[in-house]
Design a protein that fits this description.
The protein has 11 helices and 6 strands. The protein has 258 residues and is mainly alpha-helical. The strands form 3 sheets. The protein has a two-stranded antiparallel ribbon with strand order 1-2. It has a two-stranded antiparallel ribbon with strand order 3-4. It has a two-stranded parallel sheet with strand order 5-6. Strand 3 and strand 4 form a beta hairpin. Helix 1 (2-19) crosses helix 7 and helix 2 (29-36) packs across helix 8.
Length: 258
C-alpha cells in the first residue's frame, strides 16, 4: 500500500509538469537531487534536512582532547541521550546508537548498544550518524516507486536534462509571486488600457500586498496555489503563445454604469 502511494505521488509530479499546473510543495533539496540522480552532499544536505543532527555531529568532529569529549558526554547525559560508562559508573558516555528521523533508536553498528564512544572511535561514531541520515534522505525503495509513477506520465530521460532546482521549479513553480512577470503576461480586453486610472489603481494595490496576500489573490484569480515560473512567450502580449493560467485577463465592467 505504501509503495502504491509513492507511485501515485510520482504520477502527481508528472501531471504537474505536463499540465503546467504547479503543485504547492515545499520539499527538501535532497528530494529533488535524489529524484534526478544527483549525489547528496553529506555536509550541505544534512544541514538543510536536520540542523540538530548536523550540529551534534560537528561537536564530535571538532573535539580536540579527551576532556572536551567528557564534557560533551556530560552535556548529552543531561539531555538523557547518554548512559554511564561501564568502566567508571559516575562518568557518562555515549553508545553507538542514534535516533532515526521517525524517533526510533537504532544501533549504528552490530552490538552498538554495548559499544561506548571514546577518544579512539569518536570520528567513527560521527561518520556513522552522518551515514544513517544520508541513507534516510535517499530512501532508494521509496524513490524507485516515485520514479516509476513519474515515468508512467513523462519520459524519465527528462530527468537527465534537468538540474534539481529546474525539476523543482517545473513541478512546483515559484513559492513567491513576481508581479513584474505577471504584468508582462496580462491581457487587457477591448476598451481597456494599462494607463487607465482604475488599472493603475489595481496594480498599485497589488504592489502593497504581502507575498501571502498575493498568493491568496492568485488562488482567487486562477484557482491555483502557485503559477508557473516560465511561459513559452518571450514578452507577453496577445499575439504570443501563453501557458495557462497566463495571460491574466482584465475585462471591462459588465454594467453600463462602470
Amino acid at each position: 500500500a505504501e509503495e502504491q502511494l509513492f507511485h501515485f505521488f510520482g504520477q502527481l509530479l508528472g501531471i504537474a509538469i505536463r499540465a503546467d499546473v504547479p503543485l504547492p510543495l515545499d520539499l527538501l533539496p535532497s528530494f529533488w537531487k535524489t529524484l534526478v540522480g544527483e549525489p547528496l552532499d553529506p555536509d550541505v544536505d544534512l544541514q538543510e534536512a536536520d540542523i540538530l543532527t548536523y550540529n551534534y555531529v560537528k561537536k564530535f568532529e571538532n573535539i580536540h582532547d579527551e576532556t572536551e569529549l567528557e564534557a560533551l558526554c556530560a552535556e548529552i547525559a543531561s539531555q538523557h541521550l547518554a548512559t554511564e560508562s561501564p568502566d567508571c559508573p559516575n562518568k557518562p558516555c555515549c553508545k553507538f546508537t542514534y535516533l532515526t528521523m521517525t524517533g526510533e533508536e537504532v544501533e549504528l553498528c552490530p552490538r552498538g548498544r554495548h559499544i561506548p564512544v571514546g577518544w579512539e572511535n569518536k570520528d567513527v561514531y560521527a561518520t556513522a550518524i552522518r551515514s544513517l541520515r544520508m541513507r534516510e534522505l535517499q530512501t532508494p525503495e521509496c524513490m524507485t516507486a516515485v520514479r516509476a509513477g513519474l515515468g508512467s506520465i513523462i519520459p524519465l530521460q527528462l530527468l537527465t536534462t534537468l538540474t534539481p532546482l529546474e525539476m523543482e521549479l517545473r513541478t512546483c513553480g515559484l513559492p513567491y509571486i513576481n508581479l513584474e512577470f505577471l504584468k508582462a503576461h496580462t491581457m487587457y480586453q477591448v476598451g481597456l488600457m494599462e494607463t487607465d486610472q482604475h488599472i493603475e489603481f489595481f496594480w498599485s494595490a497589488l504592489e502593497m500586498f504581502t507575498q501571502e496576500e498575493l498568493c491568496k489573490f492568485i488562488k482567487f484569480a486562477c484557482n491555483q496555489e502557485r503559477i508557473p515560473f516560465t511561459c513559452p512567450c518571450k514578452d507577453g502580449g496577445p499575439d504570443t503563445a501563453h501557458a495557462p493560467p497566463y495571460p491574466m485577463k482584465i475585462a471591462p465592467p459588465d454594467g453600463a454604469a462602470g
